[in-house]
Fold this sequence. Notes:
The complex is a heterodimer of chains A (101) and B (209).
Chain A: H1 13-33, H2 39-61, H3 69-86, H4 90-99
Helix pairs in contact in A: 1-2
Chain B: H1 24-53, H2 63-92, H3 96-126, H4 140-171, H5 177-202
Helix pairs in contact in B: 1-4, 1-5, 2-3, 2-5, 3-4, 4-5
Amino acid sequence: MSSSTDHGHGSSRIYIWVWLWLVALTAVEIVLAFQALSVTVMLLLLISLSLVKAGLIISYFMHLKHETRGLKWSLIPPMVIVIVLMFGFFPDSLRILNLMP
Amino acid sequence: MSEGSVPLSKSLWGGGGSPYRIGSKKLGMWFFIVSDSITFATMLLVYSYLRVSTEAWPTPFHLWPSIANATLMTIVLLGSSLTMVLAVNAAKQGKRSHVVRWVACTMLGGIIFDILHIKEWLEMIHEGVTLFHNPWGTSLFGASFFSLTGLHMTHVTVGVIYLGVIAVGTARGKFTSEDVEVSGLYWHFVDLVWMFIFPLVYLMSANLN
């Protein structure tokens, strides 16, 4: 990967490596799905692996790694904050379960 | 660097510069992606919320054929992302015929994904899973499953049409490499969303038996 701010012309090798990593992480996820783990552990592991995959896609395939710092800061934190705020509803779903007769 | 970029003025605050150093089309697509990712995050949260608050959520996805089919769909979509990257690379080098070839490969990936997905939907509908009924009693399962995967399938279908327009336009020399890059951003985003739907909807509902 060229470290310059130029968009790294023509080196498709890095993309093939990233792609192989994405396939490997998917394989790990499928193996995990059939292990006898508690739902919480399984959810944490699967979501973490998916976040790594999302990071790889955004940085390399969508080229955000080579964009200006200003663009990264304008796009990612607002999105993450909005999504994290929605988790505030979650305790309610457990409450509904406890209310059931 | 894309054509849409404007050289920086001496001070960013002086105006007339391009602080993000990308074209307006690309910036527009990024803003769309951020808003669309929040839409999908909401759908996934609704699905998870319903699942947590329901006592016996169905786990109908067996290794064969459901998980195997969904895995194949994942690999096809990931493969189409790789061909899209190669299309963008070719566009930057000005190799127009290569762009058309790689974009066509990406479209083929999208079409195969859609066919596999629709086949799965039809099998589930045949088993009696519809928007409001299913054999396992939790009617919300069908509603949340079909709306979430349906929204994603719509995105893939729209993406295939979008890429078709890009391929024809590139072949005629109407579009620049930035246009190809912007369509690539959209396609990778659709792939990215599936990286969350696959574990949350399929793997978390995998039947261990």
